[in-house]
Design brief:
This protein is of the alpha/beta class. It is built from twelve helices and 13 strands. The chain has an eight-stranded parallel β-barrel, surrounded by seven helices. A two-stranded antiparallel ribbon has the order 1-2. Strands 7-8 form a two-stranded parallel ribbon.
């Protein structure tokens, strides 16, 4: 029976444990470029003992950034900085992953600590976002995205492919495509935000077409021996939540058939009026159903904070990996505390050597 500190094998990759540092936007970049903040931040997280570290949402185009401070991989000039991060993660014993995404109609905003609102149109950094349909995220807002033409869609799909190739060049061994949180791919999938009348709108198959074509394009450059994963918003928390989740299960089956290896089960956040049932571990039941009803490996996060509980989710077959975010921001060395909480007695193979040594000293 697996547990939180058992290694995990997927494709040609082995994680030293089931603990993942979730992608967490830092909003510290300029022109999408890695800087000293990112280099020290990711080296610190990797040294804490996680099995996998996934670098924050990285935009595949300039207009796909959530804020002007987002990282990007739309240019070869950005590869060098990411290569330094991937090397630091690998040297710390973790697997280097990266999340590629496009914010869609949620792009072009201020960072959360400045309110997260759309940039003032007079701001020289501002731009007009693009989306599946010209529907603003905030009702009655004049911050209306441009509806993407078929040429725009093809260019964006190619941008995902090109960014994935740059990620390979930089040395990343795990790829997560961000298809959640009301961003571009989710805006195509949701019937609330997709009013298109062409092959990318209407039926579920049409609304899922953008996601599936991104996966197919990325597969042409992403090595078959490395994990290709997706973060998907599986449920819109409204009166039709179960219907939406049923659609998501069908889409996940298509993604699995297309070659996706794992689903990171997350929220849709398609509209601002979703009633999220915030509570510890609230997404785990959805992840368990995805795993049991589609047969694909799953991970999740969202208010999982106890090592004991996380280990139980692994042992009970509800999750294959557990993503942690705020827990690791507040204490990058939480993995060490988790090992102590679980009374780990043989940590040498699953923790960095200094931690293994001191944990053994503590046990004795």
């Amino acid at each position: 029976m697996a547990d939180l500190f058992e290694s995990y094998n997927i494709k040609n990759i082995t994680l030293r444990n089931r603990i993942v540092a979730s992608p967490m936007c830092q909003y510290q970049a300029k022109k999408g470029l890695v800087n000293d903040w990112h280099r020290s931040h990711y080296a610190m997280l990797a040294r804490g003992g996680v099995g996998l570290l996934i670098v924050e949402a990285t935009a595949v185009t300039p207009e796909g950034r959530i804020t002007p401070g987002d990282l990007g991989l739309w240019s070869d000039d950005q590869i060098e900085g990411f290569s330094a991060i991937a090397t630091a993660i690998r040297q710390a014993g973790a697997v280097a992953g990266i999340q590629l995404g496009h914010a869609g109609r949620k792009a072009g905003c201020t960072p959360p600590w400045q309110g997260g609102a759309p940039l003032d149109r007079q701001d020289p950094q501002a731009w007009t976002p693009v989306a599946a349909s010209a529907i603003p995220y905030l009702p009655d807002s004049d911050y209306i995205p441009d509806e993407m033409s078929l040429a725009d869609i093809r260019q964006t799909i190619n941008a995902f492919r090109d960014a994935a190739l740059r990620a390979v060049t930089a040395g990343f061994k795990w790829l997560e495509l961000h298809f959640a949180h009301g961003f571009l791919a989710q805006s195509f999938l949701s019937a609330k935000t997709n009013r298109r009348q062409d092959q990318y709108g209407g039926s579920l198959q049409n609304r899922a077409r953008f996601m599936l074509e991104v996966v197919e394009a990325v597969k042409t450059v992403w090595p078959v021996a490395l994990p290709l994963t997706v973060r998907l918003g599986v449920v819109e928390f409204d009166t039709c939540a179960e219907n939406h989740f049923g659609e998501s299960l069908e889409v996940i089956r298509w993604l699995k058939e297309a070659g996706v290896d794992l689903i990171d089960v997350s929220l849709a956040l398609s509209t601002p009026d979703e009633q999220i049932p915030w509570a510890p571990d609230f997404m785990v039941p959805y992840a368990e159903r995805v795993r049991s009803e589609t047969g694909i490996a799953v991970s999740s996060s969202w208010m999982i904070s106890s090592a004991t509980q996380a280990s139980h989710f692994i042992q009970q077959g509800k999750l294959d990996l557990v993503f942690f975010a705020r827990r690791l921001l507040s204490n990058p060395h939480w993995v060490f505390e988790a090992a102590r909480e679980l009374k780990l007695t043989a940590p040498e193979s699953v923790l960095p050597e200094p931690y293994a040594y001191w944990l053994k000293e503590w046990a004795e």
